[in-house]
Automatic annotation (TrEMBL):
Its main location: membrane. This is TonB-dependent receptor. It comes from Bacteroides ovatus. It comes from the Bacteria. It is found in: Cell outer membrane. Pfam families: TonB_dep_Rec_b-barrel (PF00593).
Length: 436
């Protein structure tokens, strides 16, 4: 079935066009080709990266390493909307609009690790054991300045608007300083190897994020993996002429996600001014409103994954095959959820539901021809994935969301997440044909 945007049904097909430029005077419609030509954008980006590290071996096999880095990003963005664009028609009284945006972000990272190799203690070549413990700090500071200028003379071009902003009317100036985004992590990892045949590793992470309130700040994420290299066993001796590697793997792990804007756990206030008859004695007054609903109960989104794999190598590693099957379950997804109008807000960030992904991944690598001067290799991979929504919010079986286009025009939903069905399904009218 074919699904069309719901927005197409809200425009009448038999209004007459009577304006000199061919646009519809009764609706905010524009010619898309003309609008594209009447848009302009200039961007200037600067990125500076500073990195360094230091390693010190205290005693034999005990190493301390510290790494640090600073990323400084700066972006200047100028946007111009001419008289034929939708933005000008809606917000600029059919006059040009220019928007000037400056973004700055500084990211500081410091990682400290201690790594110890137990080979001196074990004194046995059959056994290999190493232990690593560490700490990492990532701190992000960012700010955004946005200035919008409207009502330029109608014949102004983009260059004129960018260079002569005083010829328009300053409409808004927004300065937004994000709260510092701080991620503090502690981690430990142990690796064990017996004769290159039996391999084991275990990892534990504790991550603390400033994006969550004090009670939910920390997330704890363990993982473990086992592997058996069967090709090194004595009973596989007869296969060594053609089988180089046969390894079975199994692993379990958890990972956290805190990819949401800062300050979602607290209310952000926005300032403005206005006047209204019968309100505050018809006097211009300053007021503040909550720009978003706070959710102090936000916590880490957690993904749990089981994985089983097989590695094969043939004929002096000329043919390599890797196969993995997995089940990945994500719970407490961090999503922007719609709110009832009675709340006074459109939406709020919440931990919602559970999603499962099951999949298979296959890869084939071959060395087809090789000499000292020439090498021909082939790499092929294919993957299959099936996902399903296992749960949404309490007493909720479906979640509707709007695409940007439909949201702008009629506020109708375009996508649906429903328990028992895959993610990303479109929701809308079924297209049956064109009326003739």
């Amino acid at each position: 079935a074919h699904s069309g945007s719901q927005a197409v049904m809200i425009y009448t097909p038999f209004n007459f066009t009577d304006s000199s430029d061919g646009s519809e005077p009764h609706l905010q419609l524009t010619n898309p080709l003309v609008s594209v030509a009447d848009n302009a954008r200039q961007q200037s980006r600067q990125t500076f990266n500073y990195n360094g590290s230091f390693t010190w071996e205290f005693i034999d096999n005990l190493k301390f390493k510290t790494e640090f880095g600073l990323d400084h990003y700066y972006n200047k963005d100028k946007r111009f909307y001419g008289v034929t664009t939708y933005n000008s028609r809606i917000n600029g009284n059919n006059q040009p609009i220019a928007v000037f945006t400056s973004k700055e972000r500084k990211t500081f990272r410091n990682t400290n690790t201690l790594n110890y190799d137990f080979k001196k203690i074990l004194k046995n070549k059959d056994h290999s054991l190493s232990l690593l413990v560490g700490q990492e700090l990532i701190k992000v500071k960012s700010n955004t300045d946005t200035d919008e200028v409207r009502f330029y003379p109608k014949l102004f071009t983009a260059d004129q608007a960018f260079n002569l902003s005083s010829q328009g009317t300053a409409f808004s100036t927004d300065k937004f300083y994000n709260a510092d985004d701080i991620l503090l992590s502690y981690f430990a990892r142990a690796n064990y190897d017996f004769q290159g045949k039996y391999l084991a590793s275990a990892t534990f992470r504790a991550d603390g994020s400033s994006k969550f309130s004090k009670d939910n700040r920390w997330g704890f994420f363990p993982s473990a993996a086992l592997a058996w290299r069967m090709s090194s066993e004595n009973f596989m001796e007869s296969t060594k002429s053609w089988l180089d590697d046969l390894k079975l793997r199994i692993s379990y792990g958890t990972a956290g996600n805190n990819n949401i804007p800062s300050d979602q756990t607290s209310t952000i206030w926005s300032a403005g001014s206005g006047a209204s008859i019968g309100w505050m004695n018809n006097m211009s007054s300053y007021w503040t409103t909550g720009a978003q609903m706070a959710n102090p109960d936000l916590k880490w989104e957690t993904t749990e994954q089981w994985n089983a794999g097989l590695d094969l190598g043939f004929f002096d590693e000329r043919i390599g095959i890797t196969m993995d099957i997995y089940r990945k379950t994500t719970r407490d997804l961090l999503l922007d959820a719609s709110l009832p109008f009675s709340s006074g807000y459109y939406s709020a960030t919440k931990n919602i539901g559970k999603v499962r992904n099951d999949g298979l991944e296959l890869s084939l690598n071959t060395v087809n021809f090789q000499t000292r001067a020439f090498k021909w290799t082939t790499n092929f991979n294919i993957s299959f994935n099936k996902n399903k929504v296992l749960a949404l919010s309490e007493n909720q079986t479906a979640l509707l969301t709007a695409a940007q286009f439909d949201q702008n025009y009629n506020g109708q939903s375009s996508y649906i997440a429903k328990v028992g069905l895959p993610m990303g399904l479109m929701y809308g009218y079924v297209y049956e044909g064109t009326y003739k």
